[in-house]
Amino acid sequence: QVHMVESGGGLVQAGGSLRLSCAASGLTFSRYVMGWFRQAPGKEREFVAAISSSGFSTYYADSMKGRFTVARDNAKNTVYLQMNSLKPEDTAVYYCAANSIGPAWTVQYEYEYWGQGTQVTVSS
């Protein structure tokens, strides 16, 4: 059974930083593209960032480029999202997800497994 658990969310002031982690089990982690998505209140879930199975390639939503960094440690079955220069509009529940076959990293329906999410709140 696959389990994916996010951690590292919390309350931070605008301009601050947070590092999210997502620990996965029950799957061959190194075979999966890992993505981060987020959902703000009243809005649809949106793509944040993704990283290839090897970790050599990354992709970001335009609004996150230069502020967020995705990384992974296949030895620890963990993917990370470093978030800097946070803004109030970054407030959302952040989810990690695993994709083994879909070529479209930004499309949530390509992802087979999801974590429960971690809340990030950025105060102004």
- Helical content stands at under 10%
Termini separation (Å)?
Answer: 40 Å
Main sheet characteristics: 7 strands, mixed
Write the element-wise H/E pattern from the N-terminal end onward. EEEEEEEEEEE
Number of E strands: 11
Task: Describe this protein's structure.
- By secondary structure, the chain is mainly beta.
- The mean pLDDT is 96.
- It is built from no helices and 11 strands.
- The chain has strands spanning 3-7, 10-13, 18-25, 33-39, 46-51, 58-60, 68-73, 78-83, 92-99, 113-114, 118-123.
- It is 0% helix and 49% strand.
Highlighted features:
124 residues; four-stranded antiparallel β-sheet
Short description:
The protein has strands at 3-7, 10-13, 18-25, 33-39, 46-51, 58-60, 68-73, 78-83, 92-99, 113-114, 118-123.
Task: Summarize the SSE layout with pairings.
Layout (H helix, E strand, L loop, with lengths): L2 E5 L2 E4 L4 E8 L7 E7 L6 E6 L6 E3 L7 E6 L4 E6 L8 E8 L13 E2 L3 E6 L1
Parallel strand pairs: 2-11
Antiparallel strand pairs: 1-3, 3-8, 4-5, 4-9, 5-6, 7-8, 9-10, 9-11
